[in-house]
Description:
Radius of gyration: 22 Å
Strand content: 5-15%
Helix content: 25-40%
Number of strands: 12
Number of helices: 12
CATH class: Alpha Beta
CATH architecture: 3-Layer(aba) Sandwich
Structural class: alpha/beta
Number of domains: 1
Order of helices and strands: HEEHEEHEHHEEHHHHEHEEEEHH
Amino acid sequence: MLIKRREFLKISSLATVSLMVPNFLKSMTLDNALERNQKILIVLQFTGGNDGLNTIIPTKNDIYFKERSKIAIQNSLPLNDEAGINPALSYFKELFDNGDLSVMNNVGYPNPDKSHFRSMDIWQSASKSNEFLETGWLGRFLDEECYKCEHATQALEVDDMLSLALKGENNKAFAFKDPKRLYQTSQEKYFKSLYDHHHDDETVSYLYQTLGSTINNAGYIFDQSKAKKTDQAYPNSQLGKDFKTVASLIKSDINTQVYYLSVGSFDTHVNQNERQEKLFSDINEAVKSFVADMKTNGLFNDILLMTFSEFGRRVAQNASNGTDHGTANQMFFISGGLKKKGLINALPDLQNLNEGDLIYTEDFRKVYATVLKNWLKADSSKVLGWKNGVYDFI
């Protein structure tokens, strides 16, 4: 049977959901659950360049209020004598007070790029600013750890497309938006019938193998998502639904150690405060439900929720009550297993800028190396090529 163009496009469409290793075609019937004391990483990407200075506010810094006369946050929730947090992140303040939140300020990289696409590639691939990599830092983690993986679901992204961060040379994560919808699509008679036909063409053969992997993995993920449904109430936002999916999977017998989520857009050139408040409110409520779920089920000490954004914003506001693309930013870490809590380092220096932009003091690759070595127990030097030490907050 010759494949028609329309059939090829349909296979391609379903194949992009998974982007699995071409030769992976195992049955998903074997049980290979994570041990209950094995650590789990959840990455939450703030897409679009979140404004860090209106997230963690330097409450005693006159430069901040002068440069942001219309958009400075006046009613921040105090973290210490010099810093506050955006009031829309009230639950993050609670986590901070309880010792369940760490904040790394002024994270970036040398020679920063202010393009959304390029800077996101740098963060996701953990490359130098003048280096172009086709694999992501978590994808290379999968390459190093693949011998431990019974299933190809060691890492999952709750999205329709797989991010560069989760693409390795030999192993890739599995991307899906909704377990039930993915399973229903994979079970359509058309796709199952199509998969039964063999094609010798290399490109088409790859797509057929990927289709077979998708069908198997979709069933496995769907079964696990139903295994232990949560009683925790989650907000009806998209992020709330995504966190609920992740929580159900974490509580099941799935083998997934890494989850990847995203929320945005934080590209706040115009009327920043209104947009950021709405996004922060969604994040605040979704994280609140997720953490409550993990604590209720005795899992909070074994999960680490990490946030990042591709860059921060400029120190001065623009003429549209917004901010333009900047450089360094902060990262949040939420867990019951933190060793160092609260503000890990100093607030950004607003007196010494590079043409109006913050000068980073912490390299994001050192943060990744810390997560890989201290949390996921991986060889960070092999994954990142990073040999400049790690932090001690986890």
